[in-house]
Write a structure and sequence with these properties.
The complex is a heterodimer of chains A (356) and B (290). Chain A is an all-alpha fold. Helix content of chain A is 70%, strand content 2%. Chain A has a domain of 219 residues. The radius of gyration of chain A is 21 Å and the shape is globular. The two termini of chain A are 13 Å apart. Chain B has one domain. The N and C termini of chain B lie far apart (53 Å). The radius of gyration of chain B is 19 Å and the shape is globular. In chain B, strands 1-2 form a two-stranded antiparallel ribbon. In chain B, β1 and β2 form a beta hairpin. The chains are: A mainly alpha (356), B mainly alpha (290). Chains A and B meet through α7, α12 and α15 of A and α4, α9 and α11 of B.
């Protein structure tokens, strides 16, 4: 199955007609989604899509290039604050502010990528972690960023603000369509990138950086590029996130958020766009919907309440989300290191070769 | 004033160093960076708090119970979470320890709630003694100095002369060669985690006495301690303590000059040190072989 016979087959955007069909069907489903579900649930989908952009970007860095980042909440914050502040102070149109904020974030990614040339493994994790926390503290301490109180986002204006060309988007459903278009664009870009020379250079660095260098891959350029690209994705995701939640403070972008981002990629499956999408969807759904009210969980809720009453505290049951996330992280590395994508591949293989 | 700053910086730095040693022991033996170290100390401190306030046991007994608990916790995490993973990558190991961190933090919040508590510790920060004219030192700092010195000397001798310590060093250098020499590598790892968890728990109790006790209280000290460990070089025990003391001094002086930027000093130091000299100030630089 899935035997690649020549180079051109390997670099096709859709590996088969089936994939193309289901991709189009899935897109149609997404574009008509607001017709089937109540509009208050659209908010959840907005958050999911923002996280999908981020996870796809983080996957470029972690899954394809093999670097580690525990500071993506920092890039996310730069994107969110950058977009909002550019719109408030310079009155830029939304998309322009979003792209500029993304580029600022990419610049910081480039800066962090420079020391990353010499670092690997745990040291890189610590350096990026320090970066994320530093960004959080700087934002919290400077009044221009709204300080500890946080800031509210301005109206989402696609045109020029306060002019006849103003085009304000309001409501979750309209924002949904805007984010959907951007998400599809970003995901397709990432997929495309991986089919090019750059994408193959990333993979070569992941598999063995010394071998890659010997083969003529310029580590300096491609490692920093990977960081910058990943940071750009995180920045764009952050910019959109700001307008989805419409209010944020520096402590939104804490270490736990960086960990959760990394978990999305690992749970979804490293080195796979589909995996990143699945991981982001699952983790966001768990965090923002299923585990928000633990008492109301089907089947489990009542048992958990009884258990907490007997051994722990009922009021602390809200921490169940953290426990569940920890167990997922442990379970995925111990039992399924390839993540959900690995499960998907196994299932596919099982059915394709069924009687054997 | 300046002597006071130095003494304070030395004390908090020694505490960072002590906690950094806990991180360094595990890294030294198994090359795992234990991101759950802070939360392991946090849970142990909560256990001490629990037996002190609920069962009203004397402090020395609570201390012993906590130490035993911490050792068991360390072993449990190694046996349950790290051992079953087959050939984990560096990222896999980081995810495992981060997962353990989230798990422990969630459990602590579930059991003891998020509100901040005062930890009734034997040595108080308030009680001060004037040891030299114009120089007062509080009991807490004295305790930290004594403890850090004792543990450092003990570990130095332990790694140099004891059979177990030499086995740990052998395991770090080459796991397979150590196995051939008859070292039970798994057992060495468990003992390492127990030792590290124990030292971490002692340091965490000191941190709790200084600030407050809640499920998040070890996050920042852990980061500082890690910075200290990186500063000194993760594989050198005396280096880590010296690194901690240096960091404590830098942080205290910096914090005196610009109080609002004190929290990020440690991170900036981490980033600079890691960039300029990744192996730390005191550790030998290992060059990776192809």
């Amino acid at each position: 199955m899935d035997m690649k016979r020549d180079y051109y087959e390997d670099i096709e955007l859709f590996s088969s007609g089936t994939v193309l069909f289901w991709s189009v069907a899935f897109l149609v489903f997404l574009f008509t989604l607001p017709l089937y579900i109540p509009s208050y649930n659209i908010y959840l989908f907005n958050i999911i899509m923002v996280h999908v952009i981020l996870a796809v970007g983080l996957n470029i860095l972690v899954g394809y290039t093999g670097q580690i980042s525990l500071g993506h909440a920092g890039f996310f914050a730069i994107g969110a604050y950058g977009t909002a502040l550019l719109m408030i102070h310079l009155h830029l149109p939304f998309l322009m502010a979003l792209i500029i904020a993304g580029l600022i974030s990419a610049f910081f990614g480039f800066i962090i990528g420079l020391p990353a040339l010499r670092l690997e493994g745990p040291y890189l994790a610590i350096a990026t972690l320090g970066f994320g926390l530093t960004i959080m503290h700087i934002i919290g301490h400077w009044d221009i960023f709204g300080g500890r109180m946080g800031i509210s986002t301005p109206p989402l204006d696609l045109g020029l603000q306060n002019s006849p060309y103003s085009f304000v988007i309001e409501g979750d459903v309209k924002i949904y369509y805007l984010i959907l278009v951007i998400t599809v664009l970003m995901v397709v870009c990432a997929r495309n990138l991986m089919r090019t020379r750059v994408g193959r250079a990333f993979v070569a660095i992941r598999d063995d950086d010394i071998a890659a260098e010997v083969m003529g891959v310029n580590l300096t350029i491609f490692k920093t590029m990977s960081f910058a690209l990943s940071a750009f994705y995180a920045g764009v995701a952050g910019g959109l996130y700001g307008f989805v939640v419409s209010f944020f403070d520096p402590f939104t972008f804490n270490l736990i958020l960086s960990i959760v981002f990394l978990v999305m990629v690992v749970v979804g499956g490293l080195g796979s766009i589909l995996g990143a999408v699945m991981g982001a969807t699952l983790i966001t759904y768990l965090q923002f919907d299923l585990l928000k009210n633990v008492e109301e969980l089907p089947y489990m809720g009542e048992i958990l309440v009884q258990f907490s009453r007997k051994w722990l505290t009922v009021i602390g049951l809200a921490n169940f989300g953290s426990v569940a996330l920890g167990l997922i992280m442990l379970g995925i590395v111990i039992f399924e290191p390839l993540g959900m994508f690995g499960i998907w591949i196994r299932m596919k293989k099982y059915w394709k070769t069924w009687p054997f | 004033m300046i002597e006071q700053l130095i003494v304070e910086g030395l004390a908090i730095g020694a505490c960072y160093g002590l906690f950094g040693v806990a991180v360094a022991i595990i890294y030294k033996t198994s090359e795992v960076v234990n991101f759950a170290q802070g939360e392991m100390g946090m849970i142990a401190t909560f256990v001490a708090f629990h037996v002190l306030t609920v069962y009203h046991v004397p402090f020395w007994l609570a201390f012993i119970i906590t130490m035993v608990f911490a050792m068991l916790l360390g072993m449990l995490i190694e046996i349950c979470f790290l051992r079953p993973a087959k050939d984990p990558t560096v990222l896999g190991l980081i995810i495992i320890t981060l997962g353990a961190e989230m798990l422990l933090m969630g459990l602590a919040g579930w059991k003891w709630g998020a509100e901040q508590k005062d930890f009734p510790f034997l040595l108080s920060v308030q009680k001060t003694h004037e040891i030299l004219p114009g120089l007062t030192v509080n009991e807490w700092s004295m305790g930290v100095f004594v403890l850090a010195a004792v543990i450092m000397v003990f570990l130095f001798l332990f790694f140099r002369y004891s059979r177990l310590g030499i086995a740990m060093r052998a395991t770090q250098q080459n796991v397979n060669a150590a196995k051939i020499m008859g070292i039970k590598v798994e057992r060495v790892f468990s003992i390492t985690w127990a030792m590290s968890s124990l030292i971490g728990a002692v340091a965490a109790m000191f941190f709790a006495a200084r600030s407050v006790l809640d499920p998040n209280f070890m996050m920042e000290p852990f980061m500082r301690a890690f910075a200290a460990a990186v500063l000194g070089g993760l594989t050198s025990i005396p280096g880590v303590v010296v690194g901690g003391i240096l960091l404590g001094l830098i942080e205290n002086f910096f914090g005196y000059a610009w109080p609002e930027w004190k929290p990020i000093v440690a991170f900036v130091v981490i980033i600079i040190i890691i960039t300029v000299r990744p192996s730390g100030l005191f550790a030998k630089h290992y060059i990776k072989k192809v």
